[in-house]
């Protein structure tokens, strides 16, 4: 993943997570104050902030980073949590769209995110992990 200054934050202590979960209480709205000034977030930003807070309320560790729109296969594999080799094999089979820049493969962030969403839905429907990793090493 093309991380730009990633920041990993450990999960909240159980007491703090429980308080945050109670505060969110099914709400999908937050008020953001910056230097004492109230700011209304656009829907995408609001959703991202609520998602972040929800993850903290469950005691999860969270990584926040920026990503580029086009990813190398290594970046896409890191984002998807699979090996570089497995991802390349999926692009060869046409399971994930790929664009070539000369001889280099590039994968759209949206395509990886769509694949991850499909895996998440399959995992929920089947009750079994849908993502596979061949355990290969990254070889360029």
Would you write up a description of this structure?
This protein is an alpha+beta fold and 140 residues long. It has five helices and seven strands; from the N terminus they run E-H-E-E-H-E-E-H-H-E-E-H. The chain has a three-stranded antiparallel sheet. Strands 1-4 form a two-stranded antiparallel sheet. The longest helix is centred in the last third of the chain and has 18 residues. The protein is elongated, with a radius of gyration of 18 Å.
Strand content: 15-25%
Q: Label the structural class.
A: alpha+beta
The gyration radius over C-alpha positions equals 18 Å
Main beta sheet strand tally, sense and closure: 3 strands, antiparallel
> What is the N-to-C succession of helices and strands?
EHEEHEEHHEEH
SS summary, helix count: 5
- Which stretches of 5+ consecutive residues score pLDDT under 50? none
- Let me know the number of strands: 7
Distance between the termini: 16 Å
- The strands making up the biggest β-sheet line up spatially as 5-7-6
Helix share, percent? 40-55%
Name the shape in a single word. elongated
Average pLDDT reading: 81
């Amino acid at each position: 993943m093309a991380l730009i200054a990633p920041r990993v934050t450990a999960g909240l202590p159980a007491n703090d997570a429980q308080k945050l979960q109670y505060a969110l209480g099914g709400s999908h709205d937050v008020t953001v104050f910056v230097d004492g000034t109230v700011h209304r977030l656009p829907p995408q930003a609001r959703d991202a902030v609520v998602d972040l807070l929800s993850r903290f309320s469950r005691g999860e560790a969270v990584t926040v980073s920026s990503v580029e729109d086009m990813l190398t296969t290594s970046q896409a594999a890191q984002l998807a949590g699979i090996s570089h080799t497995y991802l390349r094999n999926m692009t060869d089979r046409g399971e994930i769209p790929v664009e070539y820049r000369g001889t280099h493969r590039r994968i759209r962030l949206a395509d990886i995110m769509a694949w991850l969403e499909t895996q998440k839905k399959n995992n929920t429907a089947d009750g079994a992990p849908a993502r596979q990793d061949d355990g290969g090493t990254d070889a360029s």
